[in-house]
């Protein structure tokens, strides 16, 4: 019998992209697809592959008969409900931060460590955070060839990483400031937002995003670090299987709707050239090389948003650091950075239940 | 007699900020202030410290009697005219890229290497590029205390780095896209700009800036590097007096009007703690520490634009790299990044001519 797939959080920002992805697949291995969301969204109708499905409320019984349950919900909902789904016999593929660093939960990027899915003592597999995921296909491919040792990363993160609320906020801010000649005096953007009924206190972000960049992502974790920066470090180590990988990350929110970008400075154990790196990227089906800087060709978020691959450009040998590449990478944080990677894990699991 | 100051490029983007700075000073050491610009702008009246001055056209004679001539003009104009000013007896303080790496021209940031102004065999002193300058007060202070060895930098550069044309372009782009729900599909921003009569081909930037970041600044210099990235390396080495400083920079344009930001990963010869770094920054009059991440306090460009100091926050010890700090720095690229530093050099020279 074909496996039963459940999608928990079907009506959220990532859930909506997940349904797009399922609808876009040529074929799917699923018998039934079950949409699960909060009681508030239950009863809503959503068309999936030509069939109108009714969203059901989250409950233990909702997982009965489910083989694979994908979770696109906040950490605390996953923390409570992924184990319930697992106890009902489903494999939970969780896109929250609740289980990523749990030793008994594999953290999987299929093109990097697909082999890890089989060992899942808790019946849970975790999907990495979107910032880490945005560079992982590229880094994993380089690591296989050159052995990664050190990573210094600065991010340019899209507002949709903070969900629909983040996107709505950026749109509202830009409408409020456009055409007013702002951004030239300290506080003028902040004042204009207040005047437009958009005080920073009501924003999901701690500062204006219009005409601004904000060096803060996630919650404060002590010693100067925000959670997103520590996730990049800890999740990269776990996914790549390099427990002593040296990592420093600075995570910065920028006024981009969707698609995270990262400036990556990566040092390897072995010699690496631009030519060799290009070959590695070209051989990786989920990486697209966009790298002709002489002709102004490089990836930018607005040019690649909505795509599945990881886009890589600006590849160059660091002038003063041996065995080191600098490059720029863009990945859609809602697709590969969230929904797509989760779905790819589910697809990989499907044959077990067929 | 009080020295005569000339401002070449008085009507440009940086020149305008320069006049603001001169007007904002409590006292100035100048006898005469002479405004010089292209023939097109000659005759224009500009009020400087309560006096209406008439802009004169650039000519060799315009420098007669001038002691210090500040140049805020494109590279090729400086390359031609700074030596002419010098041959007429003025010291040229040049904000272009024409002479920065010339061995016979000092490259000066007063709070870092003020002592270099006295040796100027060509009669020219160069002002660093705005990206390097935006972090130099902070790095110079740290270097004195801990001895800088390595620098990995990613920039978030404002559009005014590309002059008034860059600012006008960002404003026009945002007006064209605001309220349209764009940035969610590859190319939708580009298409909207084309539909609004703003094709990328007409932009000073090689891609959209609205809802985007662009990993390109300056001209292409080979081996994957753009000029701005090489300037950060070469100028940092020269200003700090560390010819073998290891530097990797990735320069990225962001939709911010004015104020460059940089994510800095700096490795020192000696042990460095956050507390020690805070002390160094607090002791540096031109640096303002904005660093209470637990309470969401850090510098952002829109919150500090228009200010003279270098704003530093997010200071933390790298977890895996010895003697290494990560921090985030914001500096107004038109003030300290251009006009202010040039003027500070001129102020430092004034007593020589009094």
Automatic annotation (TrEMBL), chains A, B:
<comment type="similarity">
    <text>Belongs to the aspartate-semialdehyde dehydrogenase family.</text>
</comment>
<feature type="binding site">
    <location>
        <position position="100"/>
    </location>
    <ligand>
        <name>phosphate</name>
    </ligand>
</feature>
<keyword id="KW-0560">Oxidoreductase</keyword>
<dbReference type="GO" id="GO:0004073">
    <property type="term" value="F:aspartate-semialdehyde dehydrogenase activity"/>
</dbReference>
<comment type="subunit">
    <text>Homodimer.</text>
</comment>
<keyword id="KW-0028">Amino-acid biosynthesis</keyword>
<keyword id="KW-0791">Threonine biosynthesis</keyword>
<dbReference type="GO" id="GO:0019877">
    <property type="term" value="P:diaminopimelate biosynthetic process"/>
</dbReference>
<dbReference type="GO" id="GO:0051287">
    <property type="term" value="F:NAD binding"/>
</dbReference>
<dbReference type="GO" id="GO:0009089">
    <property type="term" value="P:lysine biosynthetic process via diaminopimelate"/>
</dbReference>
<comment type="function">
    <text>Catalyzes the NADPH-dependent formation of L-aspartate-semialdehyde (L-ASA) by the reductive dephosphorylation of L-aspartyl-4-phosphate.</text>
</comment>
<feature type="active site" description="Acyl-thioester intermediate">
    <location>
        <position position="130"/>
    </location>
</feature>
<dbReference type="InterPro" id="IPR000534">
    <property type="entry name" value="Semialdehyde_DH_NAD-bd"/>
</dbReference>
<keyword id="KW-0521">NADP</keyword>
<dbReference type="Pfam" id="PF02774">
    <property type="entry name" value="Semialdhyde_dhC"/>
</dbReference>
<dbReference type="GO" id="GO:0046983">
    <property type="term" value="F:protein dimerization activity"/>
</dbReference>
<comment type="pathway">
    <text>Amino-acid biosynthesis; L-lysine biosynthesis via DAP pathway; (S)-tetrahydrodipicolinate from L-aspartate: step 2/4.</text>
</comment>
<feature type="domain" description="Semialdehyde dehydrogenase NAD-binding">
    <location>
        <begin position="4"/>
        <end position="120"/>
    </location>
</feature>
<comment type="pathway">
    <text>Amino-acid biosynthesis; L-methionine biosynthesis via de novo pathway; L-homoserine from L-aspartate: step 2/3.</text>
</comment>
<dbReference type="InterPro" id="IPR012080">
    <property type="entry name" value="Asp_semialdehyde_DH"/>
</dbReference>
<dbReference type="GO" id="GO:0071266">
    <property type="term" value="P:'de novo' L-methionine biosynthetic process"/>
</dbReference>
<feature type="active site" description="Proton acceptor">
    <location>
        <position position="260"/>
    </location>
</feature>
<keyword id="KW-0486">Methionine biosynthesis</keyword>
<dbReference type="InterPro" id="IPR036291">
    <property type="entry name" value="NAD(P)-bd_dom_sf"/>
</dbReference>
<keyword id="KW-0457">Lysine biosynthesis</keyword>
<feature type="binding site">
    <location>
        <position position="253"/>
    </location>
    <ligand>
        <name>substrate</name>
    </ligand>
</feature>
<dbReference type="GO" id="GO:0009088">
    <property type="term" value="P:threonine biosynthetic process"/>
</dbReference>
<dbReference type="Pfam" id="PF01118">
    <property type="entry name" value="Semialdhyde_dh"/>
</dbReference>
<feature type="binding site">
    <location>
        <begin position="160"/>
        <end position="161"/>
    </location>
    <ligand>
        <name>NADP(+)</name>
    </ligand>
</feature>
<feature type="binding site">
    <location>
        <position position="157"/>
    </location>
    <ligand>
        <name>substrate</name>
    </ligand>
</feature>
<feature type="binding site">
    <location>
        <begin position="11"/>
        <end position="14"/>
    </location>
    <ligand>
        <name>NADP(+)</name>
    </ligand>
</feature>
<protein>
    <recommendedName>
        <fullName>Aspartate-semialdehyde dehydrogenase</fullName>
        <ecNumber>1.2.1.11</ecNumber>
    </recommendedName>
</protein>
<dbReference type="InterPro" id="IPR012280">
    <property type="entry name" value="Semialdhyde_DH_dimer_dom"/>
</dbReference>
<keyword id="KW-0220">Diaminopimelate biosynthesis</keyword>
<dbReference type="GO" id="GO:0050661">
    <property type="term" value="F:NADP binding"/>
</dbReference>
<dbReference type="GO" id="GO:0009097">
    <property type="term" value="P:isoleucine biosynthetic process"/>
</dbReference>
<dbReference type="InterPro" id="IPR005986">
    <property type="entry name" value="Asp_semialdehyde_DH_beta"/>
</dbReference>
<feature type="binding site">
    <location>
        <position position="333"/>
    </location>
    <ligand>
        <name>NADP(+)</name>
    </ligand>
</feature>
<feature type="binding site">
    <location>
        <begin position="40"/>
        <end position="41"/>
    </location>
    <ligand>
        <name>NADP(+)</name>
    </ligand>
</feature>
């Amino acid at each position: 019998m074909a496996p039963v797939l459940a999608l928990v959080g079907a009506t959220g920002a990532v859930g909506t992209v997940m349904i797009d992805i399922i609808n876009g697949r040529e074929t799917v291995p699923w018998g039934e697809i079950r949409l699960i969301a909060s009681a508030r969204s239950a009863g809503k109708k959503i068309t999936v592959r030509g069939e109108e499905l009714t969203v059901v409320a989250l409950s233990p019984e909702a997982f009965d008969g489910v083989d694979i349950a994908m979770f696109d919900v906040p950490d605390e909902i996953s923390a409570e409900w992924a184990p319930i789904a697992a106890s009902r016999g489903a494999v939970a593929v969780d896109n929250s931060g609740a289980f990523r660093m749990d030793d008994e939960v594999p953290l999987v990027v299929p093109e990097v460590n697909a082999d890890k899915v089989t060992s899942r003592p808790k019946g849970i597999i975790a999907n990495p955070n979107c910032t880490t995921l945005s560079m992982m296909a590229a880094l994993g491919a380089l690591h296989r060839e050159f052995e990664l040792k050190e990573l210094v990363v600065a991010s340019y993160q899209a507002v949709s990483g903070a969900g629909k609320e983040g996107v709505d906020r950026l749109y509202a801010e830009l409408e409020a400031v456009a055409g007013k000649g702002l951004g030239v005096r300290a506080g003028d953007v902040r004042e204009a937002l207040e005047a437009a009924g958009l005080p920073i206190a009501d924003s999901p972000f701690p500062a204006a995003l219009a005409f601004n960049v904000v060096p803060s992502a996630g919650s404060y974790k002590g010693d100067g670090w925000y959670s997103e920066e520590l996730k990049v470090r800890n999740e990269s180590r776990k996914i790549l299987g390099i427990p002593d990988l040296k990592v420093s990350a600075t995570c910065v929110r920028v006024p981009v709707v969707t698609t995270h970008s990262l400036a990556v400075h990566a040092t390897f154990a072995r010699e690496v050239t631009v030519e060799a790196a290009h070959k590695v990227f070209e051989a990786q089906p989920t990486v697209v090389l966009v790298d002709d800087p002489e002709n102004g060709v490089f990836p930018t978020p607005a040019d690649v948003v909505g795509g599945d691959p990881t886009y890589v450009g600006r590849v160059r040998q660091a002038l003063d650091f041996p065995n080191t590449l600098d490059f720029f990478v863009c990945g859609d944080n809602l697709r590969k950075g969230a929904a797509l990677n989760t779905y790819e894990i589910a697809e990989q699991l499907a044959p077990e239940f067929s």
